[in-house]
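Everyone, carefully examine this protein record:
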Amino acid sequence: MKDNLFELEILTPEYRFFKGEVSAMTFVADDGEWTILANHAPLVAVLQPNVIRWKADGVWKEAVNAEGYMEVTAHKVVVFCGACDWPEDIDVRRAEEARKHAEEAIRQAKSRTEHKNAQIQLARAMARLRNVNHTHL
């Protein structure tokens, strides 16, 4: 592995979404957007539903991630998230339905847990819709 590269592995409960050598990766955490480069200090971070971007072979790639967390070491980043999708695989109609369903669930929540779960679902739907709209401009 070259000095400026590190291994990135993105895992979901169902499958390995991506594994390869990258020179940079960017993600959104509770406290904002972070960029990781090779030899980064160890870190554990909570992922917000948003977009993960990484640079492999000089080309930036991106995918929409659900909530999760990641572990960073000097030569490897492992992302664990509830789901991860390529922008071209996102069904806009389905994402819009998920947004509406989550908004209704927020309105009808009877407990903090129900409200928090609905907020997570809304954040994921909005991330998917933002990414699809961004890639189709």
Observations:
- The mean pLDDT is 84.
- The first helix runs from residue 92 to 108.
- DSSP finds two helices and ten strands in the chain.
- The chain has two domains: 6-85, 91-135.
